[in-house]
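Why do we bother with holo predictions? Because pocket geometry can differ from the apo form. Keep that in mind while you read this record for uridine-5'-diphosphate.
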Amino acid sequence: MNGIRYSVVVPLYNEEAVIDEMVRRLSRVLEDLGEPYEVVMVNDGSRDATAGMARAICAANPSFKLVNFARNFGHQTAITAGMDLSCGDAVVVIDADLQDPPEVIRDMIEKWKEGYEVVYGKRAARKGETWFKRVTARSFYRFLNRMTDVRIPVDVGDFRLIDARVRDALLSVPEHNRYVRGLISWLGFRQTAVEFVREARFAGETKYPLKKMVKLAVDGITSFSYKPLKVGIGMGAFLSIASFLYLVAVLVMRLFRLTDMEPGYASLMAVMLFFFGVILVMLGIIGEYIARIFEEVKGRPLYVISDKVGEFHGRDRSASTPS
Ligand code: UDP
Ligand code: MG
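The structure, written out:
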């Protein structure tokens, strides 16, 4: 073994405003632990000064390492690469923007030493986030829980500690469009939570615009649930029965001349548009699943690394691995 006890994975996407402060606070916590550690920074294709600043940090402290992606592959992929490449007995994933306070890592380690293999940070409160983010996040976690059989804890992000065994198990999960927190729940192991208050972003603005949030939500649902597909079956069955009953009613009325039915274009139109809407939505849902199957079948690597700074002991799953 290489003797590294703790690995900390930090995804970075255009984080020039926070990176120095993050390193300062994180190193203070890690130095205090008094055991060998490494920090794996994953630069997810930043377009600002992040890469250069991270390089300087590595030069100043060899415990800090840097992986540069060839382009922006997304947060979930960045933390996957960081975990792949880390080699500590325990691995902590933390956001760069100090919304997840590094000091909480101490509590996580304590739980880990008690024998838990996954210690996730549960957001007791969220500060400095828009009501829109809070409401959508809150309802999404609850909705996802209803949709899936895997028990994914609510109000929990990717801030967590995992044991090396969990990290190794995760390495054997090759799927694209990852929802990492769900995958870790799916793996099992002994899991527990530590509560913390999610702070406001230290500086800069969120790198999760609505589009990325929606993608993460759809990935979470489609990776862990087939229920959206089943909606079509339920709706189809219900509508068939209803229309058959309607047909019988119309026949009876015609037969006994109970009605002089007018040719109702308006009602016809309404019914048709409604059903076309339903059909198109269902086609879209099926399309989402097919697109994901297609992505798996292509078998492309999860990420591409352009270069690395520092000495890594973990193995990555990238196409090119120069170092
Ligand atoms: N991030 C990333 N790639 C992306 C978007 C975000 O690596 O495409 C990183 C970002 O640098 C940060 C973490 O993921 O360390 C969480 O992003 P952010 O704080 O912007 O999300 P929020 O907390 O607003 O949900
Ligand atoms: Mg944040």
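Residues 95, 97, 99, 201, 206 surround magnesium ion (ligand 2) (CB under 6 Å).
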